[in-house]
Every structure is written in structure tokens, then in C-alpha cells.
Amino acid sequence: EVQLVQSGAEVKKPGESLKISCRGSGYGFTSYWIGWVRQMPGKGLECMGIIYPGDSDTRYSPSFQGQVTISADKSINTAYLQWSSLKASDTATYYCVRHSYNSGWLFGYWGQGTLVTVSS
Amino acid sequence: EIVLTQSPGTLSLSPGERATLSCRASQTVSSNYLAWYQQKPGQAPRLLFYGASSRATGVPDRFSGSGSGTDFTLTISRLEPEDFAVYYCQQYGSSPRTFGGGTKVEIK
Questions:
Q1: Chain B contact probe: residue of A27, A40, A47 with most B CBs at under 10 A
Q2: How far apart are CA A87 and CA A21, in angstroms?
Q3: Per-residue pLDDT of chain A (120 residues; tens, 9 = 90+)
């Protein structure tokens, strides 16, 4: 069974750094694109970016390029999303996603979500 | 950027009724790479359809997807209690990949 298990909720202050994680299991971690989707409170979904753990090829949506860093450690089947300096507007639920049906940006599997709250 | 406009914003229906949800794109969706997702409160979204009309694994056949080019439709033939949720369309053929704003299907 494919599972994406994300790290727990975080409460941070503006300007702090953060790295959240997503561990994949039940499939060949290096053979599927894994990515992140943002959902701001009460709002819709936004594709942030994806990474191919096999070779670390990383693609970002233009809105998120330079704002976050997506990485993966294939030795422990884990993908990461990190910020160097959080803003209040980063408050959202972040979903880890895995591609399906031969398209890196089509998300057939989702993690449970990580709520990030940024507040002074 | 392809903008996806979903309508209506909210659909109020009773169990057993038919639901028709629209997703209109500002430009042609490449290769009809249009997906539909369902999200229930407090849960992660679930993929329902890809390629506009291909049903994902485990999706009941009361759900159907159709359309091409710029106009796409998700139809639920007879609403079950578990179908009341928010539905999003997504185009995954052109950068940046975008989602529609969602349609909430609520119990009347």
C-alpha cells in the first residue's frame, strides 16, 4: 500500500526557518515524482513543485521558485519542503503528493497534510 | 497561465439527485490533461479523474468526467451522502499547473 506520512504541525514566528518532511512507503521511492501542494486557510489548492528522487531533478511552479526549497533523501525515502525565512502568508496546510498515471504533476496519492502556522 | 473557472461555486442538492459541475479553461488544455479531485472537510484531496474522462482506481461509476479543449464537466449521476464535498479541477499539461477555485456540493 502506498503511503505518504508527513511530519506534524508547526507553529513558527516570522523570519524563522522550517523544514517539513514526507516519508514514502509501499512503492519504489526513486521511481516516482513527489511534490508539494499548498492550501491556505479556507482556500483552494496550489501546485508548488515536484522532485524526482532518482536523480533529484526538481521543478518549481513560478510562484514558488526562490520562495521554498524542495529536496529528497532517497536513502530514507523522504522528501522535504523548506523555508529559510517564513512569512505570515506562509500559513497553510501543505500536502505531500506522489505522481500517478505517467504525469509528474498528476497527483494520485496524498499525505495527510502538515499545518504550518506563522504568527508573531 | 491557464486559469480554470469552476461553476457554480456552490451546488445545493439532495441525495439521489444529479450533480453537474463545470470547469472552463482560459486556454486549450494540452492533450486534455484535466483532472478532478474530491476533498472532504479535514481530509486530503482524492484523485477522481485524469485525462478528462479516465476514472482513477476505486472511483464509483456514478461519477463521470467529460469534455475537451476548454470545457470540462464532472457529473455525479445520483448523489450519495458521502459525495457531499468540494471538487477541484486541475490542468497538468502546461506550466504552471493550475487548479480551479472549487465547487462545493452541499446537502439541500
A1: A47
A2: 19
A3: 999 999 999 999 999 999 999 999 999 999 999 999 999 999 999 999 999 999 999 999 999 999 999 999 999 999 999 999 999 999 999 999 999 988 889 999 999 999 999 999
Among candidates A72, A77, A48, A10, which has minimal Cα distance to B97? A48
Contact A100 B56 (CB under 8 A): yes
Residue among A105, A93, A108 at smallest CA distance from A7 = A93
CA distance A4 to A100: 14
The Cα of B29 is separated from the nearest Cα of chain A by a number of Å equal to 14
Q: Nearest CB to B50: which of A45, A106, A111?
A: A106
The cell 462545493 sits on which residue?
Answer: B104
Q: Do A44 and B101 touch (CB under 8 A)?
A: yes
Q: Each residue of B51-104: pLDDT tens digit?
A: 999 999 999 999 999 999 999 999 999 999 999 999 999 999 999 999 999 999
DSSP one-letter code for B59: -
For A46-113, give the DSSP string.
EEEEEEETTTTEEEE-TTTTTT-EEEEETTTTEEEEEESS--GGG-EEEEEEEEETTEEEEEEEE---
Q: How many residues make up chain A in this entry?
A: 120
By percentage, how much of chain A surpasses pLDDT 90?
A: 96
